[in-house]
Specification:
3 domains; alpha+beta; 22% helix; Immunoglobulin-like; globular
Length: 278
C-alpha cells in the first residue's frame, strides 16, 4: 500500500506521509507539518572532478524534485579525472540564498557498492526507457538485462518460460543447468511469522519446517520504505518442534517507522512488513 500511495502522490505532484508509526497523533501531525515546510525546491547541485568532469549525475530525492533538509542527498554519476571532487550546492531556503562549497579528497572517497551501481543504472533506465532514439532504446534494454533491473521495454521477459537471457550475463562461466535460483513461495511467505510487531530491539522469525524451508544458514535484510538496504545479518537457525527460529538482536541505531524484513535462504525468499518503535 505504501508504494501505491507514493506512486499516486508522485503522479499528482503531491506528498505522502504516514503518521501511524508513533501512535501519538499530536506528535505525528507536528512532524508532518514540519517535514512539509523544511524543503528546498529551488537549487543547483554541481559535482566536478579535478582535471576532468562529472556527467550523467542523478540525485535521488524522496520528495520529487525537492530536497528535505533532514535527509542526506544521495547522488550517483560518472566522472573522468581524479579526486578531489568539488561540490557546489546553491539554493533558496526560508527567504535566503545559500551557497555551499564542499571538497571531497581522496581520503574521503567511499567504495562504490553494488547497490550504488544499481541506483545509477535504475535512474538511467527511468530517464531513458521511453526514448524514441533507437540507439538509446537498445542500450536501455541491454542495461536492464545486465543489471537485472526491469524496464518498460524488458518487463515482458518475466512472462517468458526461459529467463536465461536475463541471467546469462552474470553467470561467469557457471553451467546454467547447475544454477539454483531462490524464488518466493507465496504459501510459505504467508506462514512465516515475524514478531514482535512493532519491535524495539530484536526481531524473531518463525519459519515452518517444510521440505523447501530447511537451510543451514539464513540471511535477514532490513529494508526501509525507500527500498534502501539498512542492514543485513546471517543467522544459523534453531529447530524448535516443527519450525525454525531466528533471533536478530538490533544493536545499531534505527529510526522509528515501517520496514521490510527480507528472509533469504538457498531455497526461498520471503518478505514481511514490520514497524520499529523507539
Amino acid at each position: 500500500n505504501e508504494y501505491f500511495y507514493n506512486l499516486l502522490t508522485t503522479l499528482g505532484n503531491g506528498k505522502y506521509f504516514h503518521a501511524r508509526y508513533l501512535y501519538e497523533v499530536k506528535k505525528d501531525i507536528e512532524e508532518i507539518l514540519e517535514a512539509n515546510l523544511m524543503l528546498i525546491s529551488d537549487y543547483d547541485f554541481d559535482i566536478e572532478a579535478t582535471d576532468g568532469f562529472a556527467y550523467s549525475n542523478y540525485i535521488n530525492l524522496s520528495q520529487g524534485n525537492q530536497i528535505d533538509i533532514n535527509q542526506p542527498i544521495i547522488a550517483t554519476g560518472k566522472y573522468v579525472g581524479d579526486s578531489p571532487f568539488n561540490i557546489e550546492f546553491r539554493g533558496f531556503y526560508n527567504g535566503n540564498i545559500f551557497n555551499e562549497n564542499i571538497v571531497i579528497d581522496s581520503g574521503d572517497e567511499i567504495n562504490v557498492t553494488f547497490q550504488a551501481e544499481q541506483v545509477w543504472h535504475a535512474n538511467y533506465i527511468l530517464e531513458n526507457e521511453f526514448s524514441t532514439n533507437t540507439f538509446i532504446a537498445n542500450d536501455v534494454i541491454e542495461v536492464s538485462k545486465e543489471q537485472n533491473l526491469l524496464s518498460a521495454k524488458t518487463i515482458f521477459l518475466c512472462l517468458e518460460p526461459d529467463t536465461s537471457s536475463i541471467s546469462s550475463n552474470n553467470l561467469n562461466g557457471i553451467d546454467e543447468e547447475d544454477l539454483v535460483i531462490a524464488t518466493e513461495d507465496v504459501a510459505l511467505n504467508n506462514a512465516i511469522e515475524v514478531f514482535p510487531n512493532p519491535f524495539v530491539d530484536n526481531i524473531t522469525v518463525k519459519i515452518p519446517s517444510t521440505e523447501n524451508s530447511g537451510s543451514k544458514e539464513f540471511q535477514l535484510k532490513l529494508i526501509n520504505t525507500k527500498g534502501q538496504l539498512v542492514a543485513s545479518y546471517n543467522l544459523n537457525p534453531t529447530l524448535v518442534g516443527d519450525y525454525y527460529r531466528l533471533v536478530w538482536d538490533i544493536d545499531f541505531a534505527l529510526q522509528s517507522g515501517m520496514y521490510i524484513v527480507e528472509i533469504l535462504s538457498e531455497n526461498f525468499i520471503a518478505h514481511k512488513n514490520i514497524i520499529h518503535l523507539k
